[in-house]
Known about the structure:
By secondary structure, this protein is mainly beta. Helix content is 7%, strand content 56%. It has two helices and eleven strands. It has helices spanning 26-33, 65-68; strands at residues 2-8, 18-24, 37-44, 47-57, 60-63, 73-78, 81-92, 97-102, 123-128, 136-151, 154-162. It has a six-stranded antiparallel β-barrel. A three-stranded antiparallel sheet has the order 9-10-11, with no helix packed on it. Strands 1-2 form a two-stranded antiparallel ribbon. The model has no long low-confidence stretch (mean pLDDT 89).
Amino acid sequence: MTTIETVTAPAAASATPKVTTTTTSFPQLVSHVESGVVRIEAQSCGGLAIGTGFLVGGNLVATVEHVIDGASMITIKRHGVVLGSARVIGADQPRDLALLKTSSPIIGHVFRLAPRSPQLGEAVAAFGFPLGLPLTVTRGSVSGLDRAIPIDGVTRHRLVQTD
């Protein structure tokens, strides 16, 4: 079972937000958040790169830098349907992070960034499109922290390793 915290905005500006904690199964959690996971297709002179993005705002998508590096066109899809295009508004090559701004808002679950770094052994879930397959989900644990790994000829730093 997984615990989900939901923050509800107060009705009055001076009221305190209400936090509701519920326990749910892993399949229920996946169903709850999968609308916030998108497929990224980045076209460059080197060909097509496919990756995964996560909504962090109505028209903001977080992804990995190595997928969008050098892209001349970025397309955002969900379940094979084009949701729009995107452009890079921020990239951190050493940490393999990028932020995209979409051409129009995308409706779906908006992920919040964790207020702390993950801990060794902590349970995690991974969503993605390996080998161009449809959305795939797996779960495991954090098996290493602060890793440096070469990806596409660039050593990426401060990465989290999962099993």
